[in-house]
Amino acid sequence: MDAMTALPLVFDAPRRGLPPRHLADLSAADRRAAVAELGEKPFRARQLSHHYFARLTADPAAMTDIPAAARERLAEALLPPLLAPVRHVACDGGATRKTLWRAHDGTLLESVLMRYPDRATVCISSQAGCGMACPFCATGQGGLRRNLSTAEIVDQVRTAAAAMRDGALPGGPGRLSNIVFMGMGEPLANYRRVVDAVHRICDRAPDGLGISQRSVTVSTVGLVPAIRKLAEENLQVRLAVSLHTPDDELRDTLVPVNTRWKVAEVLDAARYYADRTGRRVSVEYALIREVNDQPWRADLLGRVLRAHLGRLVHVNVIPLNPTPGSEWDASPKPVEHEFVRRVREQGVECTVRDTRGQEIAAACGQLAADN
């Protein structure tokens, strides 16, 4: 089987294997209809939504404003258990916490909650595994198991918001402020559910969790039709493109989907997104020793980005995080500094990302959900 045959390029795969219907899968109107189907007054949908999205609980025992009999029936039908924590692993003095989750069917996935002095970010998964097959990424090397449902995606955010509220990380109670779709999976290969999840995350309570769209980042390796489709959704989320090299010859190897959509096509789609939304695009660049860190590639990266995106771009250089069995390593610091300098010299903003969670395999490219 060649690399392209193995790639799941259908953006909205069938629902096989996904969990039963959940409140967070449904729009506000669909929740009212679902409640009515159960023989309850439609306003019960708003009560149920208030508990899940505003109070951050799925425990029917806490929903005392709903009669007990109705509460159990509604919870059974619309709040089925989705994700059970298998374990938490922490580093950075507890400020970075990775959670291994088990879904209803035994599928394993991971999310990472990171607390900083001025914000708290959760890195969430949109798929269990990933089918993009990037050779430097542990998730991609493990292959794709299945898409996550909208509710499974949202529940990672809800539990992170509850953890921050309850002071589960050092520093006392706080607020979840940022969401990045940079965990397991290619978000735009699970397109419809990811877009629906963004609405549930960002709609005002009790219709959603009430987090600003501008605080949400959706990453992609470059599924061009899906980038253009996302631009038409009238969202204000930030787009992050995992580019990793500016030349097609190397990118065909590092990011196999590049054999379908070349660098210029990806960047043209990114420019379309920037023009439609007014949001600057992030370009992710994992710097790999003696693979993509040459000075001429830094110069080319700056020129290509300036030509396609002008000032509507920011480069995040990511020192390669080690993965089991990989022969590749991060570039030395002097090489990294020179790479950043040369990109900036071309008039493109470029910084090195603060890497969190490497010690617990929670950093970019390390999520593998090993039990």
Span of the ends, CA to CA: 28 Å
CATH architecture descriptor text of the largest domain: Alpha-Beta Barrel
User: Which bin fits the share of residues in helices?
Assistant: 25-40%
Structural class: alpha/beta
Beta-strand fraction estimate: 15-25%
Counted by DSSP, the helix tally is: 12
What best-fitting shape do the alpha-carbon axes yield? elongated
Any idea how many domains?
2
SSE sequence, one letter per element: HHHHEEEEEHEHEHEHEHHEHEHE
CATH homologous superfamily assignment of the largest domain: Aldolase class I
Name the strands of the widest sheet in spatial order. Answer: 1-2-3-4-7-8-9-10-11-12
Low-confidence stretches: 1-16
**DSSP strand count:** 12
Major sheet size, sense and barrel closure: 10 strands, mixed
Top-tier CATH class of the largest domain? Alpha Beta
Q: Predict the CATH topology of the largest domain.
A: TIM Barrel
Radius of gyration: 21 Å
Summarize model confidence as the mean pLDDT. 91
GO cellular component, one term: cytoplasm
Family: Belongs to the radical SAM superfamily. RlmN family.
Active site: 110 (proton acceptor), 364 (s-methylcysteine intermediate)
Binding site for [4Fe-4S] cluster: 130, 134, 137
Quick structural summary:
The chain is an alpha/beta fold and 371 residues long. The chain has 12 helices and 12 strands.
Task: Explain the layout of strands and helices.
Blueprint: H1 3-6, H2 28-37, H3 43-54, H4 68-78, E1 83-91, E2 96-103, E3 108-115, E4 120-123, E5 127-129, H5 138-142, E6 144-147, H6 150-165, E7 178-181, H7 191-202, E8 216-220, H8 224-231, E9 238-242, H9 248-254, H10 263-277, E10 281-287, H11 295-309, E11 313-319, H12 333-345, E12 349-352
Parallel strand pairs: 4-7, 7-8, 8-9, 9-10, 10-11, 11-12
Antiparallel strand pairs: 1-2, 2-3, 3-4, 5-6
